[in-house]
Amino acid sequence: MKKILMTVALALPAFAAAANGNAANANANAAVPVAKIQAMLAKPPVMCGRFDQSKTLAGMKKPLAANGRFCVVQEKGVLWRTLQPFPNTLRLTRSEIIHYQGDRVAMRLDAKTEPTVRMINQVLFSLLAGDLAQLEQLFKVDGTVGADSWNVTLEAREPALAKAIGTIRLDGGAYVNNIVISEASGDRTSIVFSKIESGAKALGPEEAALFK
């Protein structure tokens, strides 16, 4: 996840202004499935669960596996805690992105010096929450909707992001179940979400403390 964030961070400055210009056009020409998917999605103020991540690097057969726990808290941000194979934590808020290794801060990006921090937070929050209305400002959305499930493919609107991320696939129902990110380099990341809980009790004391 850290590598994906850095890839997006490098690409965002080149198209942030263009993305703002695309917003009105994207909303005016919203694909039919988007509204249906938004209606299907649960929108709890707090959502936590397990993730299992598999990353296949271009030219390598054996994928790199990781798992852990994630939390999405509206108006506050995202917590991404890798438990295996090596414990580390990413905390994304409106003002900063912090990468912890144990109790040590390994990386910090501050919105005051890195203007893309807020947009990175919004992109990741929208991906995990399935907020296609927000994602449609930056990506072309194509997909299908069933009785209780949906799937979409996202393609970057601007060349700068398209050079970093080829496509993103999401599928789910009331929540996002899977995300597959196919990078332009040939790397592929698959993330499966499970054991999703919502509500204030979903956030553990240690996790809540990281948002204070």
Task: Give structural notes.
- By secondary structure, the protein is an alpha+beta fold.
- It has one domain (2-210): outer membrane lipoprotein receptor (LolB), chain A.
- 31% of the residues lie in helices and 42% in strands.
- It has six helices and eleven strands.
- The chain has helices at residues 2-28, 32-40, 117-129, 132-135, 159-164, 205-210, and strands at residues 46-56, 64-73, 77-84, 88-93, 96-101, 104-110, 139-145, 150-156, 165-172, 176-183, 188-198.
- It has an eleven-stranded antiparallel beta sheet.
- Strand 1 (46-56) and strand 2 form a beta hairpin.
- Helix 1 (2-28) crosses helix 3 (117-129).
- It is globular.
- Residues 1-18 form the signal peptide.
- InterPro entries: LolA/LolB/LppX, OM_lipoprot_carrier_LolA-like.
* Oligomeric state of the chains present here: single chain
**CATH topology title:** outer membrane lipoprotein receptor (LolB), chain A
Low-confidence region ranges: 6-31
Radius of gyration: 17 Å
**Average pLDDT over all residues:** 81
The largest sheet has its strands arranged as 6-5-4-3-2-1-11-10-9-8-7
CATH superfamily: Lipoprotein localisation LolA/LolB/LppX
Q: What is the first-to-last residue Cα distance?
A: 23 Å
Work out the count of structural domains. 1
Tell me which CATH architecture applies here.
Clam
InterPro entries: LolA/LolB/LppX, OM_lipoprot_carrier_LolA-like
Pfam families: LolA_3
Protein name: Outer membrane lipoprotein carrier protein LolA
Signal peptide: 1-18
Could you provide a short overview of the structure?
This protein is an alpha+beta fold. The protein has one domain: Lipoprotein localisation LolA/LolB/LppX (outer membrane lipoprotein receptor (LolB), chain A). Helices cover 31% and strands 42% of the residues.
